[in-house]
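Reopening: Drug/metabolite transporter (DMT)-like permease still failing for me.
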Amino acid sequence: MPQRSAASPAMPPAILAKLLGTAVFWGGTWIAGRVAVREVTPLAAASWRFFVAALILGALVLAREGMPRWNRRDWLTLLALGASGIFLYNICFLYGLQRIEAGRGALVVALTPAAVAAADWLLFRAPMSPAKATGIMLAMVGCLVVVTNGDPLRLFAGEVGSGEWLILGCVVLWAAYTFIGRVGTRTLTPLAMTFGASLTGWAMLTVAALVDGSLFAFDGAGWPGISSIVFLGLFGTALGFTWYAEAVEHIGATRASAFINLVPLCAVLLGALLLGERIGLAALVGGVIVVAGVTLTNRASARLVHAARAAPAPAKLEKPA
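Support: Ran it again with your exact input. Result attached.
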């Protein structure tokens, strides 16, 4: 009987559906975020976003898992998650959206899976292959094209704006959140971890908004701004973050983060449909290059994972009599 050919481990259909849903929700956050910061300050929008998210996630945790009992190490992990993936990420995200188009910002963030794969190799000694390295480099080149609008010399001339740098900060911070979350899932469920990160991040954002004096400044906010904040809290955070954490737990950080390359597609389409945004040809070409690089990275990562699992275990040496 012929042996079955090697293939990467199959992805559970439920995880696939959740990752696709997360990509759509996160694509929508770029539109909702851009609408929200037109009517309220970024700090206020972020604080109320995670207030909504923490309420929903807290109710789910109580209903499914009971009252959380976190030890000191758990709290340190949750504080690190809240600082990286909630507080600092949202400062970069929302202040960046005040300066550049939603679709273009999402094209920059498409670099995230390649950044995760590179960090996995550099920091955690994940296996690397020529194909995987090529994919990472290709994604970085594409990101450079998007950031500089097709003229890489602008980077060296100091002509890249603060909006682009802030969105690049999102890439770094999300990679940090992904790996901290991987550690967190050793003792915390994805739901509890997402709730704890949202809670600690909300506390940081609220203090910052109170110091800024903008937490209750809703004089110019209408239904588009309010509904955008609710969307950010409910779909972009409560559901999206939980589903992403579940995926990382089941299939690993590199494979899960590869689905982020669908986010810019959703953001560009929604930006054109809802905001009338038009992304320049150079940015679109750069986005295609990024997605191609991320796709190559993910496929190479899957092959490496399978090869490692298929390799025969080293023979045990018998203890001499």
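The chain has one domain: 13-309. If you still see a failure, please send the error message rather than a screenshot.
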